[in-house]
Write a structure and sequence with these properties.
Length: about 300
């Protein structure tokens, strides 16, 4: 595994400040958009606790790491958009108490393994970056409510799904790109990132036959007005039949606006800090309006995927 230089304390403080600013902006962007999805058409798989050997642990681009974990049961049962809780082993005698939630990026049931991609952002992921091939990680999954395509009849013409992901948010939608390839759905995937070297999933989309639209901060193409204009031009003749998105609140807002304009459903996957991932701790409340007398939905069990629509 290739090692990466550790950031300075000043850069970490700056990154934390920017992260808080982005989080506040994202929270404002999704206000009033989300609702709990209707009951699932098929039961979600039962989660398992698995000691998963690390088969691959390498660096992706400039700032991400990729783990390939041997876990045949999860590889065979995970649904698109579900996630894992990964327990991080102790580092230098320091115990990392809580597991980290990570979207399942790819499922390889024939090989019995899954892939996750993560960025080093704090104490837990810094320790995780030190795990080497051959070690085992305790993983719990698959967890959560994933993405679902609408019910389409076999007699209907070819359908198109628009997937939008930013950063590691691309990982959450990649399972739906896999499903699209299997079901004969045309997939158009917006891959967003800070720069071209930080884009995730380009090789995966090429393998799965998806059309890719890349946008970055460097050239301004990731800005919402520019992206909105580009998507409206791309789908001017034939809008997509569903929009799936993860990675930023402003992207969820844009997807909801386009969904209203085109008359198509929108599903949004949320990223959240979690303690258990199973709904026991009730620590990941979803930003969904509810009766104040009733406990609201949780990201881990009622999501992470929710419906999104502009308030009426």
């Amino acid at each position: 595994m290739t090692s990466t230089p550790q950031p300075s304390s000043e850069s970490l403080l700056g990154a934390l400040r920017r992260q808080r600013e982005f989080a506040a902006a994202d929270e404002a962007a999704i206000e009033g958009l989300l609702s709990v999805r209707p009951p699932e058409r098929m039961p979600r798989p039962e989660p398992v606790w698995d000691d998963a050997p690390v088969l691959v642990h390498d660096v992706v681009g400039e700032r991400y790491h990729r783990l390939v974990l041997a876990t045949p049961t999860i590889a065979a049962t995970a649904l698109a958009g579900q996630f894992l809780m990964i327990t991080v082993p102790p580092k230098d005698g320091e115990r990392i108490l809580l597991p980290r939630p990570m979207a399942i990026h790819r499922r390889h049931p024939d090989a019995g393994n899954v892939e996750v991609i993560y960025g080093v952002a704090g104490r837990g992921t810094t320790a995780l970056a030190g795990v080497v091939v051959g070690e085992t990680l305790l993983v719990t999954g698959p967890l959560g409510r994933g993405f679902e395509f609408p019910e389409w009849t076999e007699t209907e013409p070819t359908r198109t799904a628009l997937m939008i992901g930013r950063g590691v948010g691309v990982c959450a939608v990649m399972g739906s790109v896999e499903d699209a390839a299997r079901l004969g759905v045309d997939a158009v995937v917006v891959v967003s990132g800070r720069s071209g070297s930080n884009l995730i999933g380009l090789a995966d989309c090429a393998e799965l036959g998806a059309e890719v639209i890349t946008v970055t901060d460097d050239d301004g193409s990731s800005r919402m007005p520019a992206l909105a204009q580009r998507l409206r031009a791309r789908f001017e003749a034939h809008p997509p039949d569903v929009i799936l998105v993860c990675g930023a609140g402003v992207l969820a807002r844009l997807a909801a606006e386009l969904g209203a304009e085109w008359g198509v459903p929108v599903q949004v996957s949320l990223e959240a800090h979690m303690a258990c991932g199973l709904g026991y701790c009730h620590g990941c409340a979803a930003p969904v309006a509810t009766d104040p007398e009733v406990e609201g939905p949780l990201v881990c069990v009622d999501g992470p995927v929710f419906d999104a629509a502009l308030p009426v």
